[in-house]
Amino acid sequence: MTPEQQRLVRDGFSKVAPNAGAAASLFYERLFALDPALRPLFKGDMEAQGAKLMATIGVAVDSLDRLHEVVPKLRALGRQHAALGVQDAHYATVAEALLWTLGQGLGTDFTDRAREAWTACYAALSGEMKAGAAGP
Ligand code: HEM
Predict the structure, then answer these.
(1) CA 50, 63, 100: angle at the middle one, nearest 5?
(2) Mean pLDDT, to the nearest integer, of 28-33?
(3) b/e sequence 75-104, b meaning 16+ C-beta within 10 Å
(4) CA atoms of 55 and 21, how far apart (whole Å)
(5) pLDDT confidence band for 21 (50 / 70 / 90)
(6) What is the pLDDT of residue 83?
(7) Dihedral sign of CA atoms 107, 123, 129, 43 in order
(8) Does 7 contact ligand 1 (Cβ within 6 A)?
(9) Atom number, ligand 1, closest to the C-alpha of residue 38
């Protein structure tokens, strides 16, 4: 990711973070509309789940300029996801729901460049998670 993309992602996250609860519920609503088969994978409390998702994205956003430091955590998270039944193809559905939610939250601030920056950020995170799921 370029420094400008890192800035766009950080700025976007800081605007959405104060409304993390609302963003998380929009996200899950969209995700399950896109693929209702994903619903049964989520067994825990959705509010807590939403908070964890936002916290993880927050940590990643804080580490964009040194992502290598969180790679082991992302790979372990990817292995854990595979054990929960998450398949590689599901990452694209989550990406779509996430980008849609960001568009809702950021409105006109979600420019084409911001969308590209978030796409690059998600690709980096999900790439490591999928690598973790694939094996050591
Ligand atoms: C960059 C992408 C993703 C991030 C950062 C992320 C993050 C997380 C985190 C932090 C947790 C909580 C783990 C814990 O409790 O210790 C979690 C759980 C979970 N995630 Fe993800 N996730 C991602 C992608 C996905 C995808 C693509 C799916 C597929 C549907 C998915 C489905 C789940 C499920 C089913 C759980 C467990 C929920 C439960 O226990 O009820 N995640 N995720």
Answers:
(1) 40
(2) 95
(3) bebbbebbeeebeeebbebbbebbbbbbee
(4) 11
(5) confident
(6) 96
(7) positive
(8) no
(9) 30
Q: Which residue has the higher pLDDT, 57 or 22?
A: 22
Q: Which domains does the chain have, with CATH numbers?
A: 3-134 (1.10.490.10)
Q: What is the pLDDT of residue 45?
A: 82
- 88-113: pLDDT as tens digits: 999 999 999 999 999 999 999 999 99
119 CA from centroid of ligand 1 (Å)? 18
- In contact, 48 and 122? CB cutoff 8 Å: no
- For residue 63 and ligand 1, the question of a CB distance below 6 A is answered with no
Tokens linked to 12 = 């976007």
Residue with tokens 């372990």: 76
* Tokens describing residue 33: 């509309």
- Calculate how far, in angstroms, residue 77's C-alpha sits from the geometric centre of ligand 1: 8
